[in-house]
Amino acid sequence: MIFGGALSQLLGFSLMIVQYIKIINNGDIDSLQEDLDRLVEWTAENAMKINQSNCKAFRFTMARVKNPLNHTIGDQLIPEASSCKCLGIIFAAT
After folding, report:
1. What is the pLDDT of residues 48-84, one digit of tens each?
2. Less Cβ crowding at N or C end of the chain, within 10 Å?
3. In this structure, are residues 8 and 35 in contact, taking their beta carbons and an 8 Å threshold?
4. Does this model's pTM top 0.85?
5. If DSSP codes are grouped into helix, strand and coil, which group holds residue 46?
6. What distance separates the 2 farthest-apart alpha carbons in the chain?
């Protein structure tokens, strides 16, 4: 773990970080946002920057969820993606 107090899991690959948590209730959503906020603080403290244009939100679920993901990096909303590529593996919502 890069920074203390995080409830979600971090996977670091070179210059890419995948942050995830199992969402069961609204408290888990809040915890994930708090972890994202801590990550922003950690990068600022270590003279690093997060490339917000490369940030994407992606959900893995069998449910038909219609609520948008409203996570932010700093003050910028993270856009939700219908698919993502991680270490050469493509994950798709369909």
Report:
1. 888 888 888 888 777 776 677 888 998 899 998 888 8
2. C
3. yes
4. no
5. coil
6. 40
